[in-house]
Amino acid sequence: MKKKSHIVWITLLSIIVLASVFAPFIAHHSPYDVELSKVLQTPNNTYIMGTDAMGRDIFARIIYGGRVSLSVGIFSVIISTVIGITYGGISGYFGGKLDNYMMRLLDTFLAIPTLIIMLALQTIIRGGLTSIILVIGCTSWLATARIVRSQFSELRDKNFVKAAIVIGTPTWKILINHLLKNSMPAIVVIATLNCAQSIFMEVSMSFLGIGVPQGTPSWGNMLTNAQSDILSGAWWVAVFPGVTIVIAMLCINFIGEYLKKKVTYV
Predict the structure, then answer these.
(1) pLDDT 10s digits, 223-261
(2) Which of 50, 134, 162, 220 could form a disulfide with 43 if both were Cys (CB 3.0 to 4.6 A apart)?
């Protein structure tokens, strides 16, 4: 059973993703409509997860919010992976003083808490969803760069790479066909783990009020709006979004750990 536990996490994550993708067909109520006559209703047959302080359906807002939070995770990971591969690849392949300077710069960035950098950039840019994706993507590539640098440095000394250099294979072909392709398993693992981290960052920034605009349903915004409602006993306003966030992040992390073991032992 333990060996197949990853199937459970993949299934749960698939349900969350599919529910978010097909939200218009699943939700019976709009996530935006304000109905003051239905404020803070407990979970019932009409609203299975209840309503918030503005009478909006929590279930609808969760699955529509999944579109925002998951999109941030996916697209920011694409950006951070491209930056990380480029930076780490150059450092790992060419080595020498260039590698030393690039790694010292990377260590400097790692010494600064990423969330602080994100908060500073987002406060300055203060855009919408696109700016959040760019901010998270441009600040979460550090771990990817370190992994790629390590992989490229190790592969550079392999005989098949040395043979490719001797016969005059263009550098870009060596980087892509020999180094990048053989590093993909490790890159996929770190990208998966970074996806969960990116979702957490979006939730954190929205919770602090500098993330997704308040009118847009997202998991972080829902937790922000629920702060005052919890004190009045409306537990469902925070519990359901919170549980969804925890499950989504657990799924991604456990899938990442499973992939890490496969990479390690295969």
Answers:
(1) 888 877 887 788 889 899 889 999 998 998 888 888 877
(2) 50
pTM: 0.84
Superfamily of domain 12-17+52-265: MetI-like (1.10.3720.10)
Q: What is the chain's mean pLDDT, rounded?
A: 84
Cα separation, 109 vs 140, in Å, equals 10
pLDDT in tens, 37-57: 888 888 988 889 988 888 889
Q: Which tokens in the block code for residue 155?
A: 């592969």
CA–CA gap between residue 187 and residue 208 (Å, rounded): 31
CA atoms 40, 41, 43, 45: torsion sign? negative
Q: DSSP per residue over 145-212, as a string?
A: HHHHHHHHHHHHTSHHHHHHHHTT--HHHIIIIIIIHHHHHHHHHHHHHHHHHHHHHHHHHHHTTSSS
Four-CA torsion 9, 12, 16, 19, nearest 10 degrees = 150
Check residue 109 and give its pLDDT: 83
Residue type, 23: A
Domain spans, the chain: 12-17+52-265
Contact 87, 102 (CB under 8 A): yes
What tens digit of pLDDT does each residue of 72-84 get? 889 999 999 999 9
pLDDT for the residue numbered 266? 39
Cβ contacts of 105 within 8 Å, gap of 6 or more: none
Partnered with residue 139 across adjacent β-strands are none
How buried is residue 228: exposed, middle or buried, by Cβ count under 10 Å (0-12/13-18/19+)? Answer: exposed
